[in-house]
User: Fold this.
Amino acid sequence: MLLMLFNLSGRFIDRMIFLPSSGVDIRPEEMGVPVEEVFLDTEDGVRIHAFFLPAQQASRALLFLHGNAGNASHRLPNAVELQRLRTDVLLLDYRGYGRSEGSPTEPGVYADARAGLEYLRSQRGIPDERIVLFGRSLGGAVAVDLAQERNLGGVILESTFTSVADMLQAIFGQPLRSLLGPVVRGRFDSLAKIPRVLSPLLFFHGDQDNIVSYKLGRRLFEAAPEPKAFETIAGAGHNDTTWVGGRPYFQRIGRFLDEVAPDIPSP
Assistant:
């Protein structure tokens, strides 16, 4: 009986965490730049969908790991802005999102991210040290898991959190965290994992974020190893960092890319 209740509670937490939408809502041809739709096979046999945005003569790549809601197509305009920083961009649909098969789970989205990294290595010939992870919100937790003990070029974490348990406490208070403690313990626990990240880190967080508390972002940053930097986007909430941050936001990402994976001019 206790095991059944635990499993039911786990599925309830999954439904709270993952809010996928199917299909493609923003068409690649609307972007005005080349966008390839690709399908990847994960290590556990799930076929997932992704967009690949090649940058002319790029010698580095960004693996874009999006947040918990919608699908990858909603992030295409953002991916285009990142591509303009002279980097290829691979934008994943987690399992159960967009055109990907399956249903999302924590181990599953970690496997999806590993498939994305392997695609950039094997299909695009980009070495680990020239791949930068970009994780927004829930995608930040996925990026931290992927970056553990890997010699990647760098990791960008935006509007992300320490753990699901801390998120529950921040939103609903200690009583609910205490009630669901056995279910959420260890879920997306970036705080425990981030000391094992070997790559340079760049954090962004809006100081008006009412979904993922700014304090959680700072706490994760403080636990992270050097080299690292934290950029506060004054006046930004959770979903408007690119708009509020504007050109300086993208310039800061560009400088980070140039520091950790300098552009190699084509002959």
About this structure: Strands lie at 19-20, 36-41, 47-53, 61-65, 69-70, 88-92, 131-136, 154-158, 201-206, 228-233. The chain has nine helices and ten strands. Residues 241-260 form the longest helix (20 residues).
